[in-house]
Specification:
Rossmann fold; seven-stranded mixed β-sheet; single chain; 19 strands; five-stranded parallel β-sheet
């Protein structure tokens, strides 16, 4: 068992304010081991937290939290912060029902001053808090901690531009670990690299090398150290200073003897405007399996601490993400105009597989969903066929561009929307609840949702074939249902659903959109045991809806139930509007819409979350019985 004597003495950050530097170094080592131990039990985000252990200790030691406010961008790196701020004994509940959140959460602790599951919001929030402090005449510090990957988003620069123009006292810690979820791309990361490769630096380096050749070996080593010093002096933080920030750095974020004096100096500059501290760290630092991994153990299942081996159950079927990637690869082999775009999530969307096949046709634009959408629109104007693969909740960040740059211009951008529906341990920040509503409300859009992995293959082929309108296919996180897969997808007729099970004389029809179809079939089986027969239909399209199918179901059944993994205003609303406007509802039939409740469902297992949402088979049956449907034949007797 590892030594935790120093950590055992800490119940809140106040306990470490008087620690010596040596005690803080020991505390950091114990905190790192504790973080690894906690995540090994529960799974979660690991690499990001390991990269900021020393920074976390330093910030809570130097600043008077929670009066001084620390905003962690995204928050997946906040596990060490949670351990130090009174939640150590609850870390075994991390990302579980009623447990510690995987992100910062205001309702969880006074030390979590701002919650976010998406990146690049910290500087904006911090500036708002700093201005509020000034208006109230207070003197507390406000510190935003943001990674170099998150800094690639435009919102971060909008906030910095505003902060610089206001001159407000604000501290931004740029945690440059050169490794967001995937290696950061774009101008931001290039600039950070150029801090040590500028023309000024090269000039100094050339002179230093020429002179150093005249020196004996010991002096050459001294010259090299002088070169590094000259490099930092020469290039500084020019871009940040032009935005109005006083730049400090770069500083080794894992060396407390370097980091602590710098933070103390910054705190003592009470009358300064905005300050940017550039800290260099390594994601996964201090844990060999994480350091050796390509993604630095960004997100992990529970694992064996001694080996780093993750515990994974055998998959019954391939994931929807993998099926999407393989389907897109299949289409791209036949059509050289197909290109793929992701916003810093190549592995999460499966496009890392596409990139291996077509390295010149996959574009990772960084954490910049707005740019990703308009970049795809630009490609579409030139006859290319862009597939923009973005999580449902992340696409929300690019909605203005979806409307103006894609829909209004009717450009054939294809959106592959992963993580549709409820996602489990990541909770409401990552739940894809709203995409049906926010896309199906747009003119010109085609919105598809497969009921299984074979249907996903067909819908990828459909999207590839659509050249006169924008389209989207939404699919959930996790494994498929295990159906047989075609070698290649076959385009589906636009706006046409299908009957899955037709029961003669049935009073109920279940019209499902997406992967709730499996639960609808279970519900129909349960109803049959009660003597209530049900027809089952797969809508396939949220827009355009299959009007002929809807007419037929309403004409032949007493109750038609729409079922979807989305919010109010989605598929059920489309069907209801069509039925009402066309006089299809009368005394002898009813329409019932089942969708996600009008609330944010907290983290849990997907099964429990869908129970709470009322979208699993037992709840579907219960709602049908509540609608007053009586048995149309004697109930079946169980064997």
């Amino acid at each position: 068992m590892s030594d935790t004597t120093t950590l055992d003495s800490v119940s809140s950050p106040k306990d470490i304010r008087n620690f010596s530097d040596a005690q803080l170094i020991k505390l950091a080592g114990e905190l790192r081991a504790e973080t690894i131990s906690a995540v090994a039990q529960t799974g979660g985000h690991l690499g990001a937290g390991l990269g900021v252990v020393e920074l976390t200790v330093a910030l809570h030691h130097v600043f008077n939290t929670p009066e001084d406010l620390i905003i962690w961008d995204v928050g997946h790196q906040s596990y060490p912060h949670k351990i130090l701020t009174g939640r150590r004994d609850k870390m075994h509940t991390l990302r579980k029902a009623d447990g510690v959140s995987g992100f910062c959460k205001r309702a969880e602790s006074e030390y979590d001053v701002f919650g976010a599951g998406h990146s690049s919001t910290s500087i904006s929030a911090a500036l708002g808090m700093a201005v509020a402090r000034d208006l109230a005449g207070k003197k507390n510090e406000v510190i935003a901690v943001i990674g170099d990957g998150a800094m690639s988003a435009g919102m971060a620069f909008e906030a910095m531009n505003n902060a610089g123009s206001l001159g407000t006292r604000l501290i931004v810690v740029l945690n440059d670990n050169d490794m967001s979820i995937a290696r950061p791309v774009g101008a931001m990361s290039t600039y950070l690299a150029r801090l040590i490769s500028s023309s000024q630096y090269h000039t100094l380096r050339h002179i230093a090398k020429a002179v150093a050749r005249k020196f004996p070996a010991p002096l050459m080593r001294l010259a090299r150290r002088a070169e590094h010093f000259a490099r930092d002096i020469a290039v500084g933080g020019t871009m940040f200073e032009q935005l109005g920030f006083y730049y400090v750095g770069p500083v080794d974020g894992h060396n407390l003897t370097h980091l602590l004096p710098v933070l103390r100096n910054i705190k003592n500059q009470e009358d300064s405007g905005p300050i940017l501290l550039h800290v260099v760290t390594r994601k996964g630092h201090g844990y060999a399996p994480a350091e050796a991994s390509d993604d630095k153990y960004h997100g992990v299942n529970s694992f064996d601490v001694s080996t780093g081996t993750q515990k994974k159950s055998a998959a019954a079927a391939p994931s929807y993400t993998k099926i999407f990637a393989e389907s897109l690869i299949s289409e791209a082999k036949q059509d050289e105009k197909i290109v793929a775009i992701t916003a810093a999530m190549p592995s999460g969307t499966g496009l890392d597989l596409f990139e291996k096949e077509f390295p010149n046709r996959m574009f990772d634009v960084g954490i910049a969903e707005q740019h990703a959408v308009t970049f795809a629109a630009g490609l579409a104007t030139q006859g290319y066929k862009p597939f923009c693969a973005i999580y449902s909740t992340f696409l929300q960040r690019g909605y203005d561009q979806v409307v103006h740059d894609v829909a209004i211009q009717n450009l054939p951008v294809r959106f592959a929307i992963d993580r549709a529906g409820l996602v489990g341990a990541d909770g409401p920040t990552h739940a894809g609840a709203f995409d049906i509503t926010y896309l199906a409300s747009l003119p010109n859009f085609i919105v598809m949702a497969p009921s299984d992995e074979a249907e996903l293959k067909h819908m990828v082929a459909t999207a590839a074939a659509v050249n006169d309108a924008p389209s989207a296919v939404r699919y959930p996180r996790g494994e498929g249902v295990g159906v047989a897969l075609p070698e290649r997808g076959i385009p589906v007729e636009i706006g046409k659903g299908r009957i899955i099970r037709q029961e003669k004389g049935a009073k109920v029809a279940l019209l499902s959109l997406g992967t709730r179809l499996a639960e609808c079939m279970k519900a129909a089986d349960a109803l049959a045991q009660m003597g209530i027969m049900a027809t089952i239909a797969d809508a396939r399209f949220a827009k355009p809806i299959d009007e002929e199918l809807v007419r037929g179901l309403l004409a032949a059944h007493e109750l038609v139930v729409t079922v979807e993994e989305g919010s109010i205003g989605g598929f059920g609303s489309q069907v209801a509007t069509f039925a009402t406007n066309n006089g299809l509802l009368h005394d002898k039939n009813k329409l019932l819409a089942l969708f996600l409740p009008d609330e944010f469902i907290e983290q849990n297992t997907p099964q429990v979350m869908y129970d709470l949402a009322g979208l699993n088979a037992p709840q579907i049956v219960e709602r049908i019985l509540q609608a007053g449907i009586a048995a149309d034949k004697p109930a079946k007797k169980s064997a």
